[in-house]
Amino acid sequence: MTLNQALSICRNRTKGDTSSPYFLACGCQPLHLGTLLEAHLFQKLADDGIGVSTGHYVDLPGSLELASGSNCVGAFVLVEWSDLDPRLGLRSSGGWSPASITDILGTCAERCARMADSLQRLSGRMPVVVVPPGLPHAPIGTTISAQASQVEMELESCLTGFLLRLSRLPGVRVLARSALAAVGSSAPRLDAKMELLAGFPYTIPYADALVEAAVGLMVQQTPKKGLITDMDDTFWSGIVGEVGIDKVSWDQSSHTQAHGLYQQMLGHLADMGVLLGVASKNEQSVVESALARPDLYLKAESLFPVRANWGPKSKSVAEILKIWNIDQTAAVFIDDSPMELSEVQAAFPGITCIQFKGKDANGVWELLGRLRDLFGKPQVGAEDLLRRASIQAAEQIRDAGDSASSPEFLRGLAGCVTIEYAKDPSDRRSVELVNKTNQFNLNGLRIGEGEWLRMLEKPETVLSVVSYTDKFGPLGKIAVAVGTRSEGTVNLSHWVMSCRAFSRRIEHHTLASLFETWDAEEIAFDFAPTAKNQPLQDFLSSLGLTGDDSGKYRISRAEFFARSGELPHSVSHP
Questions:
Q1: What is the per-residue pLDDT across 427-482, written as a single tens digit (0 to 9) for each?
Q2: Which of its termini does the chain have fewer beta carbons within 10 Å around, N or C?
Q3: 195-226 pLDDT tens trace
Q4: Co-location of 462 and 500 in the same domain
């Protein structure tokens, strides 16, 4: 994107109040960066209220403090070597004598510590993207440029420690330096003339590529939830029904290590909480026996469910998606056969289909990187790791049929509902649930992380975070209700519950707790039907609710407890 194109995009977007301001903190002159940032945000987001605020020129630490006091919904922080010590840039002089270098290293360490503290405070109020230095520092080494000098390694060590600390903060996303190396690789990065004349060190092509990468970190695609894999010539090399269980391979000695790498990646995804299923044209017993081999690179129990039969693979995929209770757009299907991929793609246009080419080692290596990008997320939470076990437990409940909703069955679950009302800004699980849940969802409205944190700061905001466990094991945090309270009414603007918790009356316990905790006489719901929230609609209907003249659904305390029926679980309020 050129600067003129960015200006045109910003001019052509309808802008009223800036309802979604972002903060740009950098040590250089921010004008062109701000324009490019606003344009890329407009392209990425369906929001005409975007604006960009900037901090103080040549004072990155001060800009971070300014950002912490702003009402912005996200911050972009660009760090260059000159922000750690001006003598590492072009515009400041001071010499690079041994004594000066010792002082430079000390200044870098002090500024990194100060900025890390500031970024920790800032990330408690909004999501933050940090871009590490991409421009060269001053040539202070005593070696030729191809040989790393001690002082350069000490600078790198200081920077690495700084970035490592930031990576541990839940609200900070650091642009990987390996990714940074590829940004704008086809064009020069440093514009020394513009830096000396105007304090802007970047060429426009590099600045554009840098901003685009930073926006991609801030506005990440929703990660996929599940991967369905073929077996023969995909998960392993060979056709197990023909060569036998002991003859399929995936190791280096058999020259089939590409399949071993794939298995290792699947194991890594399982450890991240990704659902893994099998759709194979085989005998079920043969596949299960092969999966019992002790030399697999992942645990066989990580694969659930396993569907091996001679029917169309689209039928197996349909069964797996139903058991997982996820949309086809949240799944990836991998097979070595273009015909099978085409058949599944025709049945499920929204699924991501990828061909496995076991004899193309470079292609397999690229596949591993693509899977990381498809399933990666800023953080892996405890609930992610419980997902597969909770789906297996839900299957057992579904197997109980109609009796699963009976009071006797629900009491026999020995369930415990934990309902917390603390507004913890470090808990990103709550806003994640709001933004990814579709079926039990009050209105389908999404909310940005920064907007969420602003809402939690308001004293009138009510946040209910619900966890659940029973004899089948813990589900973790599975429901969120958020809204405001005033004059005896709790008004819910968002209410979601994971599909893993359906049919256990947890929603009834949630409303009962809201009535009792806040001594409310009425709960009002900002309900809106969506294409996917039929379970929520059914629940409101079960309580006899219909919209009033304003479109809100309301229920009084007396009406709720008269209609709610038995509340079968124990409840705790930490």
A1: 888 998 999 888 999 999 999 888 899 899 999 999 999 999 998 888 889 999 99
A2: C
A3: 999 999 999 999 999 999 999 999 988 899 99
A4: yes
In the chain, the number of structural domains is 3
pLDDT recorded at residue 400:
61
Residue 474, token pair as written in the block: 């813990």
Largest pairwise CA distance in the chain = 82
Please check whether residue 536 is in contact with residue 439, taking contact to mean a CB–CB distance below 8 angstroms. yes
435: domain CATH number is: 3.40.630.30
Burial of 16 (0-12, 13-18, 19+ CB in 10 A): exposed
**What are the tokens at 493?**
């603007």
Same domain (yes/no): 191, 274: no
User: What global pTM score does this model have?
Assistant: 0.86
Average per-residue pLDDT in the chain?
91
Amino acid code (one letter) for 470: D
Q: Does residue 541 sit within a domain?
A: yes
Domain co-membership, 168 together with 264: no
Same-domain check for residues 311 and 425? no
Tokens of 352: 């991501």
Amino acid at 502: F
Sign of CA dihedral 298, 300, 306, 312: positive
Find out whether 148 and 472 touch, Cβ atoms under 8 Å: no
Same domain, 347 and 235: yes
Domain that holds residue 351: 226-375
